[in-house]
Write a structure and sequence with these properties.
heterodimer, A: alpha/beta, globular, B: 11 helices
């Protein structure tokens, strides 16, 4: 059993987090839909998809170099949630997004997400599995492959959602060169830094994991977003209180140690 | 029955795997169970490479037949076949010297693959990485030019200004000249105070996002692998 105080606090926090998700999800399931804080990138995405579909173009979605089963699993699942949000409309209009991946496990998951959306729309025969492409097995060749795709694809928008590193700068640069509207959601700090000057909408930090709540509005996603906000508020309050206490202690030391 | 196979069984396996893995972090005696589950996952993931190869052949084969991006696809498939053949030859030549696991290792890190990495992949990747600062500088300049609102322009100006100070503070020329103590101090302060604070804030958010995703899968609210 955990004996370290930090470990115990961590487990308690996870337990509170889990309970909060269950409570908020239940509340959302009962029909109470709270207003979500605005996230420009993911909020505008369905509209951009509609525009792309109207113009008969495709929507390139890069899921990054992460896979399911490794350390990037959660980030890749968040990217797949973005695909899930887009897949339904794509299936209804028979214009699938062009999905690029750099891990075979993500390839299979992405194909499955599209298959489910097409089956639900009764259009299973209309799905072309080649709309999900395994571009390369490592980040830099993957970026080069996506750059090539963006330079040939007729589209006005490019979306990046998943595990990316600094190589994402190359993809964003190609997108800028093609004059695309770019939406990105990444968890890696370096990637966020290099994407900041290039993309139109950037989801930073936990915003990436909130995509599901904006695109599919599933009760569980909305519930977990609210729980995330609650836990963050608790953590920020704890950090604030500890900071003030430390400041008071420091002031006390300075005043107490000052010569009379 | 179909729903049982496509929805309930995959979700049950996922939840059971999480429930079996979580206690291993609380009870050190169960670490072996975690290692076994991770090993199983690695084996399953290795099999996923096969559909990956089929996908590459399918996408680029169709491109060649339809004449769409034909040159790129031809070069890619040609290179794929050459590396596969050379690697196969390498393994075949080693078959009389080594066997079993060592032979499998030969396919991954034998002479051919090592040469391909050393003389093809690494130089190309190094060249691409070397281009990165120029891409970023140009992107930062374009950001300043494109952004129209005062807030976004201010953000872009802070970004560019900080990047210049950090870059100059790091440059060996300035470090050696002895005239740059202010720049070095500014760079160190930026890295230690605002950058570190921002980084910790973002990482905290990312950690919460990861926990939320994992918990959603654990309670069965998110079923990424089932109907």
């Amino acid at each position: 059993m955990p004996t370290d105080l930090a470990q115990i606090i961590g487990w308690v926090l996870i337990l509170v987090f889990g309970i909060s998700i269950a409570v908020f999800s239940g509340s959302a399931l009962a029909g109470r839909r709270p207003a979500l804080r605005p996230l420009s990138g993911f909020k505008s995405l369905p509209g951009q998809l509609s525009q792309v579909i109207e113009e008969g173009q495709s929507l390139p979605l890069s899921l990054g170099s992460g896979g399911v089963g490794g350390s990037d699993t959660a980030t890749t699942l968040a990217g797949l949630a973005v695909l899930e949000g887009l897949a339904e409309e794509s299936a209804a209009t028979d214009v699938p997004p062009t999905v690029t991946v750099a891990d075979p496990t993500t390839l299979m998951m992405a194909q499955d997400v599209l298959r489910r959306a097409y089956t639900q729309q009764g259009n299973a025969a209309g799905l072309d599995f080649r709309s999900v492409r395994y571009v390369a097995a490592s980040p830099l060749p993957y970026a080069a492959g996506v750059m090539d795709l963006l330079s040939h694809e007729e589209t006005g928008t490019s979306v990046m959602a998943g595990a990316f590193g600094p190589e994402s700068a190359f993809i964003a640069e190609e997108g800028s060169r093609q004059g695309l509207i770019q939406v990105a959601g990444v968890a890696d700090l370096t990637s966020q830094a290099v994407l900041y000057p290039s993309v139109n909408h950037l989801a930073i930090g936990e915003e990436m994991y909130a995509a599901g709540a904006y695109l599919s509005a599933k009760p569980a996603s909305v519930g977990s977003l609210l729980a995330q906000d609650l836990i963050r508020l608790i953590l920020v309050s704890i950090i604030g209180v500890v900071g003030v206490l430390q400041l008071i202690q420091l002031l006390g030391m300075l005043l107490g140690g000052a010569p009379r | 029955m179909k729903r049982f196979v496509t929805a309930i069984i995959p979700s049950a396996i996922t939840i059971l795997a999480i429930l079996a893995t979580l206690p291993t972090y609380l009870v050190p005696a169960l670490v072996g169970l975690r290692a076994m589950l991770v090993e199983l996952a690695v084996i399953v993931a290795a099999f996923a490479m096969l559909p990956g190869v089929v996908n590459v052949l399918h996408v680029h084969g169709t491109n060649i037949i339809r004449g769409r991006g034909r040159f790129y696809s031809l070069v890619l498939l040609f290179t794929f076949v050459i590396v596969l053949l050379l690697s196969g030859l390498d393994v075949a030549l080693s078959a009389n010297r080594v066997s079993g696991e060592a032979l499998a290792q030969q396919a991954m890190s034998g002479v051919v693959m090592t040469r391909v990495y050393e003389y093809v992949l690494i130089p190309i990747q190094a060249s691409l990485t070397a281009l990165l600062p120029f891409f970023l500088a140009f992107a930062a300049y374009r950001t300043l030019r494109i952004r129209r609102t005062i807030g976004s322009m201010l953000g872009a100006a802070v970004f560019l200004g900080t990047a210049i100070v950090v870059l100059l503070g790091q440059a060996p020329l300035f470090r050696l000249s002895g005239l740059d103590s202010g720049l070095i101090a500014a760079r160190e302060w930026i890295m230690r105070v605002p950058a570190m604070a921002g980084m910790r804030g973002i990482l905290l958010g990312v950690a919460l996002g990861i926990i939320a995703t994992a918990l959603r899968v654990l309670i069965g609210a998110d079923r990424p692998s089932s109907d």
